[in-house]
Amino acid sequence: MNNGHARRLWALDSPTLTVQSETLLYGTSGEITIPVPSFLIEHPKGLVLFDTGLHPDAIEDPEKVYGADLAANLRIGGTADQRLDRQLQAIGYKASDITHVVSSHGHFDHTGGLFLFPEAKHYFGDGELRYANWPDPIQKFVYREEVLDVIRRLDVREVSGDFDVFGDGAVTILATPGHTPGEVSLIVHLKSRTFILTGDAIHLRAAMEQEYHFPIDADTTGALRSLRRLKYLKESLDATVWISHDPDDWAEFAHAPGFYE
Questions:
Q1: How far apart are CA 199 and CA 111, in angstroms?
Q2: 129: pLDDT confidence band, cut at 50, 70 and 90?
Q3: How many CB atoms are closer than 10 A to CB 123?
Q4: Domain spans of the chain, in order of start
Q5: DSSP label at 55?
Q6: In the structure, what pLDDT confidence band is assigned to residue 1 with cuts at 50, 70 and 90?
Q7: pTM for the full model?
Q8: Would you give the DSSP letter of residue 40?
Q9: E strands present in 114-253
């Protein structure tokens, strides 16, 4: 049995999006402001980044990056200090120090900073890149051609099923398809506790509790299956689930420069 541990986990501060809550969860209404974080994991064999968030320039000039219509709908909030490259610098790392980048999926709010890491090994779930190039109409707007152009120039590995990044059980890419065909989550074993980082396999705590899928999931049946898998793993691993976009999770857990070890 693998019993390795990562050394540290940081949640990197991020810009926010303000959207209508019903776009995230059926039966709700009104506005909700959600974080768009990245997570950095230090392991003896490398530095792993889980998701790269929005394009760093979008914080200061969202219309230039995403166009007027999408920028108006996203209502991006934040300051230049929340750029991913500056967040890394604030805890003592350069973008070139990152050895592995795991993208939960290909949507623009999770892949905007991929271009910062041209020398890293990049991981996507099986089927994600094919779908990103030929998405269903309902998801077409969240796959950006400029991101796909970056991905084509990277050292990319599409992994099928679960994948142990370092072979010791410390950092495991977990197949949780449904939101997109290649959606993945990440299990991080630290000495003090275990985290499951959900990406967009779950969007809000209420969705996990009520077992409601996201309104525009690519495969709603698969999404619910993955949601339940994460709930059961939470129990069996005695893990803490960290839902990337959930504002309550962001408020509860520590952010960089604070960390877990």
A1: 12
A2: very high
A3: 24
A4: 8-252
A5: -
A6: very low
A7: 0.95
A8: E
A9: 121-125, 155-159, 163-164, 171-175, 184-189, 194-197, 240-242
